[in-house]
Amino acid sequence: MGQRGAVHADEDPQHLPGGRERHPAGRPSGPAGRRLLTLDQWDGYGAERSEIARSIRRAGVENFVIITGDIHSFAAGYAKEDYDDPSNEPPNAVGVCFVGGSVTSSNLYEIARLGQSPSGPAVRSPARLEDALRISNPHYEFFDSSTHGYNVMELTERELVCTMKYVRTIREPQENPRADTLARFRVPAGRPEIQRLSP
Asked: Which candidate, 118, 87, 102, 117, places its Cα nearest to that of 170?
């Protein structure tokens, strides 16, 4: 539920057993013929993800939060029952999700450019990657894959505050290492609503 991989339209799918579709080139597709790029993430388990969200909604669970980091980038977004529905409001939104950056592993931008120089052909800039991911993932309120770091989560009875901390470099030792604030978010108790705070 933490994140949905990038998807895009497939104009002429061929159907596979189990209701899945396959692009002529062999890449599996999802609803409405959209090609799924990361089947080891939730893209490959859309029905299961929706059933989990439906169960959370039906049980009346409040303050549902996902904290994950498996895409090695910073993100803040919504856990939803139907990701094809553009609404990030209840009842479709059942909770919120915060993704922490990587401390030492390659981030999504570095992986996407396959370790090549920033002028390499795969992905030219973190901003281009982030724009593409936001288009494919409208449930993201924030996404950043330009740096490395971690999230600090503060929980009280009234709210959750997520502070995303980043480091200047992981490539060389620092005499006085420090972590600066990339972004801060607040989620009030009882409502799946992400509010951006000033750093």
From this structure: 102
Strands 74-80 and 148-155 come out as: unpaired
The answer, yes or no, to whether residue 60 has pLDDT greater than 60, is yes
Tokens of 28: 């599996």
* Apex 135 CA angle, 129 and 136, nearest 5: 90
Read off the pLDDT band of 114 (50, 70, 90). Answer: low
pLDDT tens digit string along 126-184?
Answer: 888 888 888 888 899 999 988 999 999 999 999 999 999 999 888 888 888 889 999 99
Bridge partners (DSSP) of residue 7 are 36
Structure letter (DSSP) for residue 136: H
Q: Which residues pair with 68 in a beta bridge?
A: 99
In terms of DSSP H, where are the helices of 96-192? 108-112, 126-136
Whether 47 and 81 have beta carbons less than 8 Å apart is answered as: no
Cα gap 18→98, rounded to integer Å: 32
Q: What pTM value is reported for the model?
A: 0.76
Q: Quick one: tokens of 154?
A: 């503060």
Determine whether 16 is exposed, middle or buried from the number of CB atoms within 10 Å of its CB (0-12, 13-18, 19+). exposed
